[in-house]
Amino acid sequence: MEQIKQIAKVLESLSFPARPTKKQLLLYKEVVYKTRSLHKKPHVLILGATPELRDLCIAQKCKVTAISPGNTALAVMTYLMKYKDHPNNKAIEGNWTNMPLPDNSCELALTDIALTGNPCQKYEPILKEVHRILKPGGFFFLRTFDMLEHETKPDPDKLILQWRAGQITTGDFFYLSARLALDKDHNIEQIKNLKLFVQYCQEGKFTEQEIKQIRPYISDGTMSCPYRKDLIKTFSKFFDNISIKCARDRKNKTVEQNALFFMTVKK
Predict the structure, then answer these.
(1) Could you tell me if 127 and 219 lie in one domain?
(2) pLDDT tens figures, 206-260
(3) Cα(243)–Cα(222) distance, rounded to whole angstroms?
(4) What are phi and psi of 229, to 5 degrees?
């Protein structure tokens, strides 16, 4: 128990992007409230064991089943919960591609950056399993950001060469280029990134045709960070009405890391 307490103390000191911000939690609340308006006592599946999400659901009289790959993580996250001893709080160690829940047994699935730590090829079996467990019309809501190149800044010139060689798509080029302005606190300053691209255009680093490709990604003085097409394509196999919401937070300026996908299960 002492080890659990020590790890919990470290986790409590962490903030965004490791843990959701207050504004991001408001978006989670929206989907929980919507589910509660449609179902009297919904069953919520949580991939991972994020204490804020579990407490939020239990406070709204939802039955919660959290599934996490590690017992230690489950124990630590449960220790941080307000409603750790509540009868609606259930935690299971398990694999997200083979979860011990019956078909059509949950009205809502939530996760906070759990998919981020998985390679892209693992998304499909995880989403397929979530789809199996959710009831028709159920919701799947999550916060995610791409881990690729997350810890290091890519070399701008190498990135341009990869794009020109067709090794990465235009969407992926902008997805990765956001990290050109990545600082030590993992904030991505969109204005700085935009200025860098303007500078490159002025220096003639892009051809007229390339500038035409760039222009749709720049609007209203900010640089958009589109989601990887393969990620959206995978989600589309299992979910309808995919949309993206962002928690606008002045402190955390990155659009990408604030982003949440909002999906409904195919009927």
Answers:
(1) no
(2) 888 888 777 766 654 444 444 555 677 788 889 888 777 766 665 554 444 445 6
(3) 20
(4) -60, -35
Q: Locate tokens 């406070």: which residue?
A: 59
H or E segment at 241? strand 239-246
| Claim to verify: residue 141 and residue 258 sit in the same structural domain | yes
Asked if residue 149 lies in contact with residue 178, where contact means CB atoms within 8 angstroms, the answer is: no
- Same structural domain for residues 52 and 112? yes
Taking the CA atoms of residue 21, residue 27, residue 30 and residue 36 in that order, the dihedral angle to the nearest 10 degrees is -70
Kindly give the residue spans of alpha helices, DSSP state H, lying in 134-239.
156-164, 170-177, 190-202, 208-214, 229-236
Record the pTM: 0.70
Domain that holds residue 22: 2-146+227-265
- Tell me the residue length of the chain: 267
* Range scoring the smallest mean pLDDT among 153-157, 176-180, 232-236: 176-180
Q: Is the peptide bond before 100 cis (omega within 30 degrees of 0)?
A: no
CB atoms within 10 A of CB 100: 11
3-state DSSP call for residue 197?
helix
- Burial of 102 per CB tally in 10 Å (0-12, 13-18, 19+): exposed
- Residue 108 forms part of a structural domain: yes
The residue assigned the tokens 């969407």 is 171
In angstroms, the CA 238 to CA 267 distance is: 10
The domain tally of the chain equals 2
Q: Whose CA is closest to 256, among 158, 148, 120?
A: 148
Question: Strand 222-223 to strand 218-219: parallel, antiparallel, or no bridges (unpaired)?
Answer: antiparallel
Tokens standing for residue 217: 């990604």
